[in-house]
């Protein structure tokens, strides 16, 4: 067997042994081995090297969604995107349990008024930094609500990153008057 294949087998065996130990230690400590297995599934082997995904370094801090009724037809998700990694991460899209239509939006000045529009290129979260999603700023827009979202409800959100990995979180619904922005109708939105 060529030497480089032998090294790959040793690396693979070492990685599997480490994952088994993490799972066993988690179970002994009363924790869930599912968490260890889930974390391990986000790690990819590329050319014999272990690499991580953008989702490994992205955390959503204090997520919440604005309560809304179906007459409003839309709402938004807010919070902070924190990148603890050493490379930039780009959020390219989002999906929610509240609707089949979700977009990434930003606020821009148009004819002297602040209006929201789709965020071309997604949200870039610089390495080691936070990117705020807030009323009056960048946010995850939830359109075509199928049922009301009341204070205390929970909405699940999945962010898809530029490397294809995903980050799932739950946003708690809150009542607020913030975020009463207008749409830029140049996109056909009103």
Number of domains: 2
| Mean pLDDT across residues | 77
CATH class of the largest domain, anyone?
A: Mainly Beta
Percentage of β-strand residues: 35-45%
Succession of helices and strands: HHEEHEEEEEEEEEEE
> What is the terminal-to-terminal distance?
66 Å
Query: Which descriptor suits the 3D outline?
Result: globular
* CATH-defined superfamily of the largest domain: PCu(A)C copper chaperone
Structural topology:
Blueprint: H1 3-28, H2 33-41, E1 44-46, E2 49-51, H3 54-57, E3 58-66, E4 74-83, E5 89-96, E6 101-110, E7 113-118, E8 123-125, E9 130-133, E10 139-143, E11 154-161, E12 166-174, E13 182-183
Parallel strand pairs: 3-12, 7-13
Antiparallel strand pairs: 1-2, 3-4, 4-9, 4-10, 5-8, 5-11, 6-7, 6-10, 11-12
Helix pairs in contact: 1-2
